[in-house]
Fold this sequence. Notes:
Elements: E1 39-44, E2 50-55, H1 63-67, H2 69-83
Antiparallel strand pairs: 1-2
Amino acid sequence: MLPWLPMSSAPTSKRKSRKSILADAKGRVTLGAWAAGKTFQVELDDAGRVILTAVVQVPEHEAWLWKNHEAVAAVRRGLADAAEGNTRSLGTFSDLAAVKVPEP
Length: 104
């Protein structure tokens, strides 16, 4: 386990610590239990450093949102408004329950 690696989701440029580890015969290194099940972006920079960045994958049909800065900002504003209680009722929509939607 490498407890010196940053484990927060916040970007950081400060080095927590430095430690030497030995890769096995197949070139593998162990990150420890905290990394289990995570997906990493792997970069090799010009100085020969390996940079691992934990990432999450987004379904392709949802990727448009993260590519559209205005849409992301609108979603964040809506979530902030809801968290502050700035909401209003639009009714029960019970009249739509009787509407039959055609099968695709």
